[in-house]
Design brief:
Length: 702
């Protein structure tokens, strides 16, 4: 007998639309009597998933849901209070999902729903679950009465996955395990699964990587086929007539200290009042050919996922850290954007070409800054880089000023990094300082991204742009409302919102205690940037034409940008390309945009879990915080030292409080708490598994 699966049963029923009796299905698969039990299980599961129906003895595929039902497709977004929202695919306002519906749903499930009115408010009634987000997950093995279950961790609404008693007894209670879900929860049906991996009883850095990878369904390994392809690639770098030989040029990389792959190297020459800037990018598309196993995997991943102490690379290790990486004193294939920039920050001439380079140094951001500041030890170590870095500083400041004048919004959110001991365990969180060296590289990447995007737009070739739509006026007005509530004298936008309007609001808060909150609120007002084959500009950067060209080792969109650029400079666009590429690029852009969101969420989650572990040792300690949310049930406060939120329950505030929704505040007789207020809090409780921090109020700055 062939292995019996849900997919095979569905295929059979799709071919027999009128339906089949149980015995007919069993006969189609040549099942023996003892094998029919497995078929019954599969049919029962398909019924519970609402994929098939059973009527008058016949099993049949559930009929296509009629459009006149006005069914809405969307993604489930869970809220920790037990309810959820349906994020509609059609872009219409989200619909509330009541807790009774959320009992059977996971955050991220794709569903079809009907819009219902309950007590005068719109709600979503789930009609069909189209796609389950979670296949495997990490949880804690627990026991109640005589039954065993996995309590899933790091989920907005936790679920219990019941497991076989005999299997569960093989593992110690309280251990973290990976569970594969074999039956999803439904009305009167509990979730079931099987344990596939034991992670031990400590939530260490490795366990956190597993938790997050399973939660977001991230690939932990590359396929054998992709690894074999990578191993078969030649490491020889040849200088050919089609590539510019720049191996003698003084170029170098500037990256974080922990960087293992180097996408970009820079070089500069001063020509009178102008600057000739070279941005060399790893030529990944030379190695990764369209349709190869490596290419297919890179498309699925969309990007590299950076988890604490572990990177899940988009490309196999040999490519990411060896062949493509612009390591010092090694000849490397590169793709170069050479720009002549005047003192107004304008690109007055440019060339885009394939090259061979040899980086002369691997600098960290701090080393680059030390050289710019003239610290003797670093100047002595890198004498050839002193002049280039001074020119780079001059040019970056010109580019920053030009960008600011056109209205580019600098969100500059505070960042933190986790420090690990020799065992790889987290022990502290420190601010991640962005300084001049970071800004130099940032500005050079932006100007090269704009240059290649303008080149492609000018020639009207198929391309992938990085676009950022204007924010909705309602959201901007809500942001202005909050700024007014914080005490700022503000005006509402007249007509279409321009980047300068948002920029000026942020500038009002610079240097104030609520600066980071205002930056966060401004960011929340924006739509998310995404990839698209259609250029609509980039609102946040106040740029008319933008793309991502500079990180092909870790972003799949950049690989395609390189492929398309090469077709352009080599004049290899065919009539077929011009007809077929736009549709193909739409699919690629959508996938890259989607997986970028997954990466952002996964990386944020992983950091938060480790921060909670550190904070568990800080119970009873006091910290400075800022109020980031005011709710009828209490205050959300961000602990500034750790950039993580906790909750002060309204019952723990010093007075009886009244909720003032319009002005985002809780008001008492003697004291009031407003959004943006600085307060001192004490950590009362940290629950790593539910990702919650309970805070106590200590004092408030007057």
């Amino acid at each position: 007998m062939l292995e019996l699966t849900q997919e095979k049963v569905l295929e059979l029923l799709k071919r027999n639309k009128k339906g089949l009796f149980f015995k007919q299905i069993a006969k189609s698969f040549n099942l023996e009597k003892k094998e029919e039990k497995q078929l019954k299980k599969i049919l029962k599961k398909l019924q519970k998933n609402k994929t098939i129906v059973y009527s008058k003895g016949l099993y049949k595929i559930k009929g296509e849901l009629k459009e006149d039902k006005n069914l809405i497709k969307g993604k489930v977004e869970a809220h920790e209070s037990g309810f959820g929202f349906l994020i509609r695919e059609d872009g219409e306002p989200d619909l509330f999902i009541p807790p009774i519906e959320m009992d059977y749903l996971f955050d991220g499930d794709v569903v079809l729903a009907e819009e219902k009115i309950y007590r005068g408010k719109k709600e979503a009634k789930i009609v069909k679950i189209l796609e389950r987000r979670i296949k495997t997950a990490v949880g804690k093995l627990q026991k109640e009465k005589n039954r065993y279950f996995i309590y899933l961790l790091d989920f907005v609404i936790p679920h219990k996955i019941y497991v076989n008693k005999k299997e569960a007894k093989k593992y110690p209670l309280g251990n973290y395990v990976v569970v594969e879900i074999t039956q999803y929860p439904d009305r009167n049906v509990e979730a079931k699964g099987r344990i596939i991996k034991d992670l031990g009883n400590v939530k260490n850095t490795q366990t956190v990587a597993e938790i997050v990878a399973r939660k977001y369904d991230l690939p932990l390994t590359h396929s054998e086929e992709a690894i074999k392809e990578a191993e078969s690639l030649s490491s020889t770098v040849k200088i050919t007539k089609n590539r510019k030989n720049l191996t003698k040029q003084i170029c170098f990389t500037i990256d974080p200290e922990s960087a293992r792959d180097h996408d970009d190297a820079v070089a500069i020459e001063k020509e009178g009042e102008n600057y000739r800037l070279y941005v060399h990018i790893a030529d990944v598309s030379h190695y990764v050919k369209e349709g190869s196993a490596i290419d297919k995997e890179a498309f699925q991943r969309g990007n590299t996922y950076y988890l604490p102490e572990r990177a899940l690379h988009m490309l196999p290790e040999r490519l990411a850290s060896n062949l493509c990486s612009l390591r010092p004193y090694e000849k490397k294939y590169a793709f170069t954007c050479e720009m002549l920039i005047n003192k107004k920050g304008e690109v007055i001439d440019y060339k885009i070409y394939e090259s061979v380079i040899e980086s002369k140094a691997k600098l960290t951001y701090d080393q680059a800054l030390a050289i710019i500041l003239g610290e003797p030890e670093h100047v002595k170590a890198f004498p050839d880089l002193v002049e280039p870095l001074k020119h780079m500083e001059e040019l970056a400041k010109i580019l920053m000023k030009t960008k600011e004048e056109r209205g580019s919004i600098d969100f500059d959110m505070p960042e933190s990094q986790i420090l690990f001991d020799e065992k790889g365990d987290p022990y502290d969180v420190v601010p991640y300082e962005r300084h001049l060296a970071h800004r130099i590289i940032e500005e050079f990447m932006i100007i090269s991204n704009e240059t290649v995007a303008r080149h492609m737009e000018k020639h009207n070739f198929p391309f992938i742009y990085r676009v950022h739509e204007k924010p909705k006026i309602e959201k901007v007005n809500a942001f202005v409302d909050i700024m007014a509530g914080l005490g700022y004298k503000v005006e509402y936008p007249k007509g279409e919102v321009e980047p300068k309007f948002i920029q000026k609001l942020i500038e009002m808060a610079v240097g104030t205690p609520e600066e980071s909150l205002v930056r966060f609120l401004a960011l929340r007002t924006m739509k998310q940037a995404k990839y698209s084959p259609y250029n609509i500009g980039h609102f946040g950067l106040a740029s008319e034409c933008y793309t991502h060209f500079t990180s092909p080792i870790r972003r799949y969109a950049d690989v395609w940008v390189h492929r398309l650029l090469k077709k352009s400079i080599k004049k290899k666009f065919t009539k077929k390309d011009l007809e077929e590429l736009p549709k193909k690029l739409e699919i690629i852009a959508q996938q890259c945009s989607q997986m970028e969101r997954v990466a952002d969420d996964a990386e944020r989650d992983a950091l938060d879990i480790l921060k909670l572990r550190i904070l568990k040792e800080k119970i009873g300690e006091e910290f400075e915080g800022i109020i980031t949310g005011v709710m009828p049930f209490g205050l959300f406060v961000e602990i500034e030292r750790y950039i993580i939120e906790g909750l002060i329950s309204i019952s723990d505030l010093p007075e009886k409080m009244r909720y003032d929704e319009k002005n985002h505040q809780l008001v008492g007789e003697e004291i009031r708490f407003r959004l943006g207020d600085k307060i001192k809090v004490k950590i009362a409780k940290v629950d790593e598994d539910s990702k919650k921090i309970d805070l106590k109020f200590v004092s408030k700055e007057v």
